[in-house]
Amino acid sequence: MPWANDSPVPTPRAPKSTVSKRVAELEDALGARLIQRTSRSFTLTDVGRDFLDHARAAVTEAEAAENVVRHRQAEPRGVVRITTSVPTAQFRLADRLPLLALAHPKVRVELHATDRFVDLVQEGFDIAVRSHFSPLPASGLVQRRLAVESIILVASPGYLASHGRIRRPEDLSEHDGLLTRAKATSWRLRGRAGESVTVMPRARMTADESLVLLKAATAGLGIVCLPETFTRVDVESGRLVHVLPTWTAGTVTTTILTPHRRGQLPAVRAVIDFLMEGASEA
Fold first, then answer.
1. Is 250 left (phi over 0), alpha (psi -120 to 50) or beta?
2. What is the DSSP letter of 183?
3. Residues 6+ apart with CB under 8 A from 150
4. Helix, strand, or coil here: 5?
5. 102 in Cβ contact with 270 (< 8 Å)
6. pLDDT per position in the chain (282 positions), as tens?
7. What angle separates helix 96-103 from helix 266-281, to the nearest 10 degrees?
8. Distance (Å, rounded) from C-alpha 243 to C-alpha 167?
9. 191 Cβ contact list (under 8 Å, min separation 6)
10. Which of 7, 59, 231, 277 is deepest in the core (most CB within 10 A)?
11. Would you give the distance in Å from CA 204 to the centre of its chain?
């Protein structure tokens, strides 16, 4: 067909005068003669031959780098470093990350769980998953809301059977509480109609680790306030009961943060999309 052409398109060549000018400028910049010129021929000098070898190697490396980028764009692959708090790692990521590894076998996740503040850019992380009660401050990081969930009260059926039914928030003052901090001896509860009340349970145990408090609640030691995600498995199995279901102890927001540039990498985008899908399914 006259309009079809399978032959390669020739690369346009610069005029000889342009090439000669650029070589002369390069020689001036280097302070060395690269080509020995005669009236009939051009011959590379020893320095020119060395320069050409290195230049060819640089072009080869540049082409290899371009191919790596193109390949990464085609399929998510490589290491993705995530930092998050210990409770978020245990209750939100522990079940999800193995599924991520199966869905994207060429992506390798490195998870760093810590309760200290981590600077993503300075410490070389691609993603942070942070749970917070108030809006995060402006930081120059890209923020994507993963989930907003209620903080609920739960207790074991055995505890409720032995300590009596809880009908209203004020009843909690006669019950054992499992608290997150020694100084936080009260819970501020909010009802569906917008009313609020502060209650002070008896401090039965204090711990700054959510899993410890959850285990204490399932063991029948008292009532605990935790995000719904943390308690869902035990509530669904019947090991815990949702106490005062029309009241909550506020909400907690979980946010994914990424530096601008790293957030554009295919592997990082794949991890973010997978976590977001998991949150919508929960």
1. left
2. S
3. 227, 228, 248, 250, 251
4. coil
5. no
6. 332 333 333 445 667 778 778 888 888 888 888 888 776 777 888 888 888 888 888 887 887 677 666 655 667 889 999 999 999 999 999 999 999 999 999 999 999 999 888 898 889 999 999 999 888 888 889 999 999 999 999 999 999 999 998 999 999 999 999 998 756 789 999 998 889 999 999 999 999 899 999 999 999 999 999 999 999 999 999 999 999 999 999 999 999 999 877 667 889 999 999 999 877 666
7. 130
8. 9
9. 197, 246, 247
10. 231
11. 36
Are 269 and 256 spatial neighbours (Cβ–Cβ below 8 Å)? no
Burial annotation 36-69 (CB, 10 A radius, 16+ → b, else e): eeeeeeeeeeeebeebeeeeeeeeeeeeeeeeee
Q: Token digits for 170?
A: 């004020």
Q: Write the single-letter amino acid at 96.
A: R
CA dist list (Å): 52 to 11, 25, 59, 64: 20, 16, 10, 18
Contact yes or no for 181/205 (Cβ under 8 A): no
CB 178 within 8 A of CB 204: yes
Look at the chain and count its residues: 282
Pairing outcome for strands 187-191 and 142-155: unpaired
